[in-house]
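Sample 1 of the test manifest.
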Amino acid sequence: MGQTRPVRRFWLASLRNPPRTGLQSALGALLAWRRSLKVWMSMKILVPVKRVIDYNVKARVKSDQTGVDLANVKMSMNPFCEIAVEEAVRLKEKGLAEEIIVVSIGPIQAQETIRTALAMGGDRGILVQTDADPEPLEVAKLLKAVALAEGPGLILMGKQAIDGDNNAVGQMLSALLDWPQATFASKVELSGDTVRVTREVDGGLQTLELDLPAVVTADLRLNEPRYASLPNIMKAKKKTIDIKTADDFGGLSGGHLKVLKVTEPAKRVAGVKVESAAELVSKLKTEAGVI
Amino acid sequence: MAVLVVADHDNASLKDNTHKTVTAALALSGDVDVLVAGHGVAGVAAEAAKIAGVRKVLTAQSDALGKQIAEAVAACITPLMAGYDAVLIPATSAGKNFAPRVAALLDVAPISEIIEVVGPSTFVRPIYAGNALETVESSDAKKVITVRATAFKAAGEGGSAAVEPVDAGAGAPKTRFVSDELVKSDRPELAGAKIVVSGGRAMGSAEEFHRVIEPLADKLGAAVGASRAAVDAGYAPNDYQVGQTGKVVAPQLYIAVGISGAIQHLAGMKDSKVIVAINKDADAPIFQVADYGLVADYKIAVPELMAALTDAGH
Ligand SMILES: Cc1cc2nc3c(=O)[nH]c(=O)nc-3n(C[C@H](O)[C@H](O)[C@H](O)COP(=O)(O)OP(=O)(O)OC[C@H]3O[C@@H](n4cnc5c(N)ncnc54)[C@H](O)[C@@H]3O)c2cc1C
């Protein structure tokens, strides 16, 4: 990190603690406020993001049953990861975080996904480059190593990736780090050394308060991610992405699951169109027998 | 091989997801125990003891368990796993919240939302919003599995298992419960309902959703669901959402009103026995999965449907 400090920080500092008289003491005090504020203001947010099939594309199973055909398919940032990036950017815009580090584990093309997050407002990126398709447990272990190296106060990530639909990495990462977790977040309020999270649960909403550092996973209602503006896309091109390997973070631990085959689910066939509500009721009663 | 099933409950009553998960567990082993982790759960444990095929019911109780705090539930289950080869957890929002933690603490790969038990280590699970089914084999000695309840029949009653308390575990020292905001409803629960009536973006407002969808549901004794668009817009509460990232339902009858049928919505309801779609756009993708489609403006079609149901004695 460079030595330049944003002016806004001094300004915020002086707002919170108005200077006393005398240039010396004012300067000294200013430095002290800076130090105390540093804990608060130096809060880093780590946002893991995944490159996945675009959510508008219907996945097709390969005829040899080895997986889903991703050749020439539009790929994008996982929608839940986008929501996590957006939330991190909003926290930074509110002055509650200093730096947003975006990390992705995946092929070299995942740089584009990181770049998208940087255009939304992320500060710098880390790509842990691998062509393997690591399992959630392996991903969680790599992310743990990244987290320990970066020391974020908060890890904000998507609740699930729309390819594997596992909904597991955030919870596993939290367990491995022994940091508290709040999944399925629809509201995140940072204050000092805690975070208050409203979660979408079966039956409604639950609000928890966690000590920082913590892991929070985003649900759909947390926010509506912004589209990056052209100037921000241009700016993002100059932001740093460190390209690393899994070995830089302890290596891939190896899979525990073997995919034996991937098949297509039974297709539903379209039924009939009915002409009227009355016909519908009679069909449901006599033909289908469901009412 | 012994298998632990973690009960789905709200401290007051046992949920049917538990019975369905027991069925999945019985496909793995004859030695199935049920853990009821919560607060004030004597009644729930008594209900669990009656499930046919259950060997033993374990109860663990604390405030944090009563709120289903993931850290606490995982800390309770993990040491118990010394005595089990697999733990099966209903894939509810609570189950999804703590299951991967248990897996990480045991250093095993979680297996999410299985829909079939193929063999002792082999399972089928949907991926890509249900557009593909993956058959996976686990090499872990201990397995942590979440179960999509709609894919399994409920185990019957008739058991009389012993109930035995176990240690509640270390709790969740860094997590504090603040509040709950639970939706109260006298309607059947979405996940297990025989009939579901869902409304989409076409409703246009929460008032319209109440006016149109709820009376139709009540006439049929149905649960109420919604599309993501309807939930995002505030027409319906979040736990009504049916789909890839909401609830998965498979009722006898699913009626979609003013829902287009996006992949993500279909992922949550396409295993329903009978699907009815009411949509004014004849080309809406929902009609590709509907057994009965009515191309009409819901503003006319739903009142007519109510009248036809009345005529038919509903
Ligand atoms: C990561 C991700 C996860 C998602 N998860 C889910 C999920 O779990 N569940 C889910 O539902 N969606 C989910 N979605 C959203 C999904 O892609 C669709 O946007 C959503 O399902 C659309 O909801 P809808 O059908 O109500 O709205 P629309 O697509 O806008 O459809 C409205 C329909 O109403 C019809 N209509 C309008 N007026 C009338 C009228 N007067 N009478 C009759 N018909 C009328 C229209 O013809 C149209 O077909 C997810 C999306 C993403 C990106």
